[in-house]
Amino acid sequence: MQSSAFQFFTHTEETWTAMLEALCGAKISVDIEHYIFLPDSLGQEFIKIIRERNGAGVKVRLLLDTVGSYALYNSSVPAQLESEGIEIQFFNTVGFWRIPYFATWFFRDHKKMIIIDGKVGFTGGTGINKSMATWRDTDAKIEGPIVGEMLEIFEDMWKAKGDNIFQRIKKIRARTRKRFFITNIPYFRKRFLYYALIKAIKRSTKSIWLTTPYVIPDHKLSRVLRRASRRGVEVKIIVPKIIDVAVVGFASNSSLGELLKAGVRIFKYQPVILHAKTAIIDTEWATFGSFNLDSLSFVYNFEGNVVSTDSKCVGALSAHFAEDLKNCEEVLYKNWVHRPFLEKLKEFFIAPIRGFL
């Protein structure tokens, strides 16, 4: 298979600049599937270009998550865009009329994809939300066969219309051939990304380097990480010191003890909020995208990640990891055990809902 080309961005503002520049050059189609698309000043920049391209005859489709993009969903913008011929869908709508289906509200479309003319793609962790302007994230502009796979995933989600989330899951095809853009679908036989990561960790012989905004591993992931560390694999995890969602931060911090005790080394990124989601195994296999190490990504969210053994891709992500380590402070088990009582108390009260974070 022909290889894909990656141009990486490690800060949100440079990602947005590249996205807007590429959107300006769209000639045939623009397909956007995003968890967060807000109608703030940044969102208005995107909307302006989308409208201009639509006016020039470019086919524009927006597939946005209702919860993540609620401010846009609850505004007059969608009706205005539709009146101009732009197609827009909001995934898994919520509201008082859907209270009988409250249990389904947890299922969210957490992917971040922009596909231009079916040839250029963007994916990673960055949303269209101005408040993320100073964050450290990982995104890439991609050209090559992976973009075609991204478009297939978009089409699957776009065609599987309807409010019944379980019917939607059934409609989405389980693509079994070898792929490089892998999804996680909230159905136990379609959690492809989760199992790809577990498999890579089990096969590791030298190193496992993970970067994640939240580390709330389930029993299986925690076990394979601890076993890898005990068989001599270097396991390092970078998490943020400053966390964007405090409740998730307490749940994440409470998860560190058993990993640290097993020899897993954990580092807290100091400068700004860290939102990147990457994994590098033995410096030969890597993944990046929207997938967090928490229950929402494991069980409830529709996620999408690039998985690659391309040396340039893996090398770039490895270099980012090494650079980030320079701006981290290591978490020591003895310090974690003696963390302030108030922190432990908050973690105790968060524990009952840990499986939903």
Automatic annotation (TrEMBL):
Which SMART domains does the annotation name? PLDc
Under the GO molecular function aspect, what terms does this record hold? phosphatidyltransferase activity
InterPro entries in the cross-refs: PLD-like_dom, PLipase_D/transphosphatidylase
Q: Name one GO biological process term.
A: cardiolipin biosynthetic process
Segments forming domain PLD phosphodiesterase: 105-132, 270-297
UniProt xrefs under Pfam families: PLDc_2 (PF13091)
**What is this protein called in UniProt?**
PLD phosphodiesterase domain-containing protein
- What organism does the record attribute this protein to? Candidatus Nomurabacteria bacterium RIFCSPLOWO2_12_FULL_44_11
